[in-house]
Fold this sequence. Notes:
The structure holds two protein chains of two kinds.
Chain A: H1 6-9, E1 12-20, E2 41-46, H2 59-65, E3 70-75, H3 95-107, E4 111-112, E5 115-116, E6 119-122, E7 132-146, E8 149-160, E9 164-168, E10 172-176, E11 183-189, H4 196-212, E12 223-230, E13 237-240, H5 247-264, E14 272-276, E15 282-287, E16 294-296, E17 303-304, H6 307-311, H7 319-330, H8 334-340, H9 346-352, H10 357-375, H11 384-395, H12 403-412, H13 431-440, H14 446-457, H15 463-473
Helix pairs in contact in A: 4-5, 7-8, 8-10, 10-12, 11-12, 13-15, 14-15
Chain B: H1 4-7, E1 13-18, E2 23-28, E3 36-41, E4 46-50, E5 54-59, E6 81-86, E7 93-96, E8 101-104, H2 108-114, E9 123-128, H3 139-155, E10 159-163, H4 169-179, E11 180-181, E12 186-190, H5 203-216, E13 221-227, E14 235-239, E15 243-245, E16 254-256, E17 263-265, E18 270-272, E19 287-288, E20 297-301, E21 319-324, H6 341-355, E22 358-362, H7 375-382, H8 394-407, H9 410-417
Parallel strand pairs in B: 6-9, 6-10, 10-12, 12-13, 20-21, 21-22
Antiparallel strand pairs in B: 1-2, 1-5, 2-3, 3-4, 7-8, 11-19, 13-14, 14-17, 15-16, 17-18
Amino acid sequence: MTDLDYKKLGFKCGLEIHQQLETHKLFCNCPSIVHDSNPNIKIKRKLRAVAGETGKVDAAAAYEIKKDLKNVYEACSSSSCLIELDEEPPKEVNKDALDIVLQVALLLNAKPVDEIRVMRKTVVDGSNVSGFQRTMLVATDGFIETSKGKVIVDSICLEEESAKKVEKKDDYVKFRLDRLGVPLIEIATDASIKDPEHCKEVASLLGMILRSTNHVKRGIGTIRQDVNVSIKGHPRVEIKGFQDLKSIPKIILYETKREISEIKSKKKTASHVRKADPDFTTSYLRPMPGAARMYPETDVPPIPLEKELLLKIKLPELITEKVMKLEKRYNLSSQLAQELVHNEDFEKYVKTFKISPELIAKSLIEVPKEISKRFNLTTEKINNSSYEEVFKAVENKTINESAILEILTDVAKGNKIDLKKFKKVSTSGIESEIKTMVQANKKLSPNAIMGMVMAKYRGKVDGKKVMEIIKANL
Amino acid sequence: MFNLKKNIIPNTNIKITTKDSRTFEGLVLPDTTSQKVVLKLSSGYNIGILNKNIQETKSLKNQVSKKNKLPKLKTNKKLPTISILHTGGTIASKVDYETGAVLSQFSPEDIISMFPEIKGLANIDSKLVRNMWSSNMNFNHFNILAKAVEKEVKKGVDGIIVTLGTDALTYASAALSFILEGISIPVIFTASQRSSDRGSSDAFLNLYCAVKFAKEANFAGVAICMHGSSNDDYCNVLPACKTKKLHSSRRNTFQPVNTAPIAKVTTENIEFFPETHHKKRNDSKLKLKLLNPKLKLGILRFHPHFQSSMLEPIKKFDGLIIEGTGLGNGPVECVDEFTKENEKTIKTITALTKKMPVTMTTQCVFGRVNMNVYSYGRKILDSGVWGNHTDMLPETAFVKLAWLLSNYNKKEIKELYHKNLRGEISERTLYND
């Protein structure tokens, strides 16, 4: 990727991240569950372009309205109420969402505004039933430290997620409303990102900070990156729809190359929005929305951010810090520590049971993976009480460490834990038995004999010691 | 100290440096107070900045935006003429995206620029009668509206649209249907539950259907035209005296009570409902029978644990509408040691009926009053309360009684109260689902 001199090209790049929060919806008490159950509500609406006082209809708005489509909205009562249907005014901003966005703002070294004013951002593609998205500027002037210097975070906003488009026909577009109103944090950096790899680093850092709050949604579609790219002589282009972080550098590289060739061909282009395609190229989506699309959401009172309120915000520990702490304190590999960072039980077990933290970590992270890989089983049946029972047995030395995998495999299969089955057998007790086996199978390799012993005593004896005995008697 | 007030002037551009050395550039908005500046940033976001956190301000050059002058409308002699009478409110509001303020627009050119789809329907005349917030209205406002309608009728227009806030709309529509005696053209009230500054507003369909009905339908009298469902597919034309606002926020909030809608209107079609009888366009002369603004009338609801002292201030009134329970009942019998208060209540009611008309309606919303069925009903009837066998909404009964008191003598009032004059009382209660 270093075949372009980005500095020389006048490369400018800014990142916008949208992250869904794990709270109730932003302006109503509906749970923010994104699902695909059968809808019990169906309404049909038409959106109209509303001209501003200046007589201008926003470029993006005019583009959508030309299509003159009907919008069909499907919803389930379990996740949508009259507020999503644009049949009831919004309630006040969800307090948890506000708390989380302020945590993020402070983690990004940003300064909250004195007073938040909720705005209506005109959206005419139908994805907001009301015709606008509610959004608010929460903080400005933040920054993050990266390997290539400081990147300024211009703004941190809190806004509503849009409805999901599920079908498009000649005369209508169908949306589902369960996603509409889920709180979103929008983080926008300035255009100082230096190159495509740097953009990936910034995106990954911002993602880590968001996840550190422990209250963001996880999984496909819950975080979205929009990248703004331009080089000298080419207007700004916004790219949406990145599938994952890994694709960022390649897509930006291809976009930069596309811009270079456009400049060469002397093609005149206006600023616009492009979609990231699976082959890492981009395709035209729509004109760039103008700035003149916002007006106040008069149904929601302004929110003063007084000092006392900000002092009450508890900042979470960053995931990166947590991982380092886990590594150091328990002498774990960084891989294991990273996977453990979201496990709330690990430290509790370490405190409760006098057994090695590494053994606990491996039992929590690696054992379930091995069970599903080796036996093609799901591991949801393995719960806290199975772990507690197993760790206690190890602590009391009634079972061997190696029995953990066997016992939990049994649990995954739906069986009850039967510790007797795995009762520790002292190697000295079976020494004569091993000897007999070795005598009878002298032609076999030690590993093969080991296999025969373990077939009978798997999980009950210490494998290392068994091998020692086999070798000694060969 | 520099003078803050010098640069913080609403509707001018400003650069603010805060004490934590942030800079903000934007337009100072009118909701700025002595404590805080409300700024519209170039990103479109508004924020509040506390004056005590401001370090420095600097005036910026104002960008003068060119406002497009709207072209003057031409009259098409082939099309009928519809007058739109505005009373302020959200149906004619437009956003100023520079300041974010919502402005009301009332000239015919403004209305056509906001609702271009009605241009081909009719010649539109449009004016602001006066700003009247629905909930703040009283009889004076109803009279002003009636006079404005009379003025348009005299001009010879083919139909009149009245736009009003939804909250007291049915009081106003009922009042006008009584005041405008002998109205020979359609007078259609319309409104919106979602303001017209948003793309999803119900105003567009409501106004379109109202104009279509007012210019095409063979109908004379007052009616309401609003969304028939949550969809943007059709409007109902509803009887002025038998419609209630039944939902605080939904688009199809207005529903007919004890009757069917008059008609269903789509952008293509008008379909009259066969059950409802309405007057056709005619040559009769309009006569205004205005309300007396000095009248004092009240609406009072009977409920468990009712205190007779609630009735005391009514003694100075000119009339009272009671919303009884069920068929027109109320707490008027002393049946045990806990219900002695009820005796005082019926005594006070009896005293009131000697001085003024006291009438019964039902708080059930749907159905008819019948005070013969239960002993407490009979007791109320015997005390001199009117309204037995009527099925008027309390809102309509209130307006009707005020109108009768304003225009008729005592004997006539009692007779006319129980008689259907404008479709406010149905002779038969029809089965409606």
